[in-house]
Amino acid sequence: MSVANETHASTDEETRRFILDEVLAEAAFEGFTYQSLKAAAKASGADPSALGSGLLARLFPAGSIDVIAYWSGEEDQAMVEAFRAISGYNS
Questions:
Q1: How far apart are alpha carbons 37 and 44 in whole angstroms?
Q2: What region does 32 belong to: left with phi over 0, alpha with psi -120 to 50, or beta?
Q3: What is the DSSP letter of 88?
Q4: DSSP conformational letter for 50
Q5: What is 3-42 written as a DSSP string?
Q6: Which terminal residue of the chain, N or C, has fewer Cβ atoms less than 10 Å from its own Cβ?
Q7: How far apart are the C-alpha atoms of 44 and 24, rounded to whole Å?
Q8: CA neighbours within 13 Å on the CB side: how many for 48?
Q9: 40 neighbors 26 (Cβ within 8 angstroms)
């Protein structure tokens, strides 16, 4: 997340996470398409007016590619946290 977006970071991050959760369920049937991304955004409870004003373009500028990259980053972070928990590594 850029410093310029820092004021919206927690809201955007929460929204991004909710959309990711929904798109993963949607993609099982429809694949990682722009249509599944739009459906996931609606299902996530995102503000409809925000969807119309470019929310998806702001959160995932490259569409599904950005969703997959975000998912990968989330899973990488979970792996690091799990490693720290089992190894006692705290740095």
A1: 10
A2: beta
A3: -
A4: H
A5: GGGGGGHHHHHHHHHHHHHHHHHHHHHH-S-HHHHHHHHH
A6: C
A7: 12
A8: 0
A9: yes
Query: CB-based contacts of 40: which residues, under 8 Å, 6+ apart?
Result: 19, 20, 22, 23, 25, 26
pLDDT digits (tens, 9 = 90+) for 9-63: 458 899 999 999 999 998 988 899 999 999 999 998 888 788 878 899 999 999 9
Tokens of residue 19, six digits: 């959309």
DSSP 70: H
Composition of the chain by helix, strand, coil, percent to 5: 80, 0, 20
First to last CA, the chain: 22
Location of structure tokens 């410093």: 3
pTM for the whole thing? 0.76
